[in-house]
Each structure stands twice: as structure tokens, then as C-alpha cells.
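Please fill in the sequence for the structure shown.

STRUCTURE ENCODING:
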């Protein structure tokens, strides 16, 4: 590992100043489960590593039914699924955080860090997309907001400019008669990278028979986690049944442009996109009712 300097600022302003001073040569440490491995293996270089875990805004988790969830970018995964109110309100997020590595990783890894790492197979990113999460970013020019669907730019790349850091993720309040789910397919039983993943969110009519709104997002089937817009829009007004789920799965797989690798072929990943969409829609509807 190439030597680097270390700093642990206590405020967002201090962190921004340190990052801006290095003009892209500083890296952020939240949980460290990605960046430390990347630095050790020479996949990334840093003159300075900025530890953000002492900044209150990045480690706060605030939830209320009226205002929704504000999740600090450095909050570790286990704090989400162990919080009964949050897990019940945002079940797709709980699904994803429970399967990020093993429990040792979950005690360190954060949803914000997973998002910033911008892996096409990032498990927690599709739930952020289907919840229409807003990413709050601080930088030398002040604060700005970006939707989770637009945050990842390419494999390993996000929209953060030099000097910027992700502060928090803002989830809207839970809509009535709504539910969500996330599933992935992996070769092993646990601690593996997704061959494909899908998250679905639905809002039903009061009778629980018709889908009023839906959002579907896929992982590991394109250069970045992707929102399946056509399938999501098509579901509005459709019956909440297996026939609708199956057709939405066929529409969702149209956004899949995967690669062949050791974990799966392109054809297999496209097939999985449809299957996982169908399954997560069924689970989301079940949870909504």
C-alpha cells in the first residue's frame, strides 16, 4: 500500500476544506470496507484519507412517519435492519442491508458508502432508486441535491466533484398502502456479489387490488444500477396479480445490457432481471396488504 495522510474532521466544513485542498487526491473513509481494499490493491490512489465518522450529520439516523427517513452517509448497515421502525417502513432497504457481506462487514459498511462506490452490483442502490431518495451533497460551492437514480455515473464513478462529499440520504414518508422488496441472485448462499438484483416498490388502491404507482430498479445488469421506467409506468392502473408482475418483468429486462463474466452470461442476467422483478413485485404487494 502506498503511504497516505489521515485526517478525521469533526464538521462538514472541515471535511470539504480538506477534500478541496487535495483536488481529487483525497478519499473518504466511512466504513472502509471498499476504499481500504482498493488502496491496498492499488485500484485507487490517495494522498489523504478523510475519516468522516466523527461528523454528526454523517452518522445520524432520524426517522418519523411524518417526515420520512434521513440517513447519514456513514451510518452502518446493521443500524438500519436492527431498527424495527425503519425496517418496517422501508423493507427493501432492510432486505438489502441484511445481505451486504457478512455481519462483520455490516457493522462497518454504510449505505452511503455503497452508493458512492458505484458498483453496478451494489445491493443497497436499487432500493434507494425505487424509494426516489434524494442525495444531499456538500462541497466548496455549498449544498446541492441529486436523485439516487442519477448519482452513479459509471462503474466505480459517481457525480461527486472534487471537494464534495455525500452528507445524507433523504427518504420520503411511507405512502399509504405501499410496500417494497429487494432480492438478488448469487452463486453461493451468502457473502457474494449479485449476478443480478432487483428492487420493487408499489402503492396500491385502498382495496389492495390495483397498483396505483410502481417503481422498479435493477442491479448488475448494466454499467450502473438502473431505473426500469417503462415497466414502472406500465404497472400504474394494472391489477396486482401474477400476470401483471410477469409482464412488468418482461418490460424491465429491456433495460438490461449486462456483460459476460465468471458469475454469469448476458442471457442469464437478462433472464434473472425478469424473474427477480416478478418476485419482488409479488413480495412488495404482499407487504403492502
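FILLED IN BY: designer on duty
SEQUENCE:
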Amino acid at each position: 500500500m502506498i503511504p497516505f495522510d489521515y485526517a478525521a474532521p469533526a464538521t462538514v466544513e472541515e471535511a470539504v476544506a480538506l477534500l478541496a485542498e487535495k483536488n481529487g487526491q483525497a478519499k473518504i473513509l466511512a466504513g472502509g470496507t471498499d476504499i481500504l481494499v482498493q488502496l491496498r490493491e492499488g485500484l485507487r490512489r490517495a494522498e489523504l484519507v478523510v475519516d468522516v465518522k466523527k461528523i454528526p450529520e454523517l452518522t445520524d439516523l432520524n426517522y418519523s412517519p411524518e417526515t420520512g427517513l434521513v440517513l447519514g452517509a456513514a451510518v452502518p448497515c446493521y443500524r438500519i435492519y436492527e431498527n424495527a421502525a425503519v425496517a418496517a417502513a422501508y423493507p427493501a432497504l432492510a432486505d438489502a442491508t441484511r445481505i451486504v457481506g457478512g455481519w462483520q462487514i455490516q457493522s462497518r459498511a454504510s449505505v452511503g458508502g455503497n452508493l458512492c462506490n458505484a458498483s453496478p452490483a451494489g445491493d443497497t442502490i436499487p432500493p434507494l432508486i425505487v424509494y426516489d431518495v434524494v442525495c444531499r451533497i456538500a462541497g466548496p460551492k455549498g449544498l446541492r441535491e441529486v436523485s439516487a437514480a442519477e448519482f452513479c455515473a459509471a462503474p466505480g464513478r459517481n457525480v461527486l466533484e472534487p471537494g464534495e462529499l455525500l452528507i445524507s440520504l433523504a427518504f420520503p414518508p411511507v405512502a399509504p398502502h405501499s410496500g417494497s422488496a429487494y432480492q438478488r441472485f448469487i452463486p453461493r448462499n451468502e457473502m457474494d456479489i449479485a449476478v443480478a438484483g432487483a428492487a420493487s416498490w408499489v402503492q396500491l388502491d385502498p382495496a389492495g387490488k390495483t397498483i396505483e404507482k410502481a417503481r422498479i430498479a435493477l442491479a448488475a445488469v448494466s454499467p450502473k444500477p438502473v431505473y426500469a421506467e417503462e415497466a414502472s409506468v406500465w404497472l400504474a392502473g394494472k391489477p396486482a396479480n401474477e400476470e401483471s408482475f410477469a409482464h412488468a418483468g418482461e418490460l424491465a429486462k429491456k433495460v438490461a445490457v449486462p456483460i459476460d463474466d465468471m458469475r454469469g452470461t448476458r442471457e442469464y442476467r437478462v433472464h434473472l432481471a425478469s424473474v427477480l422483478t416478478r418476485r419482488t413485485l409479488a413480495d412488495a404487494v404482499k407487504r403492502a396488504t
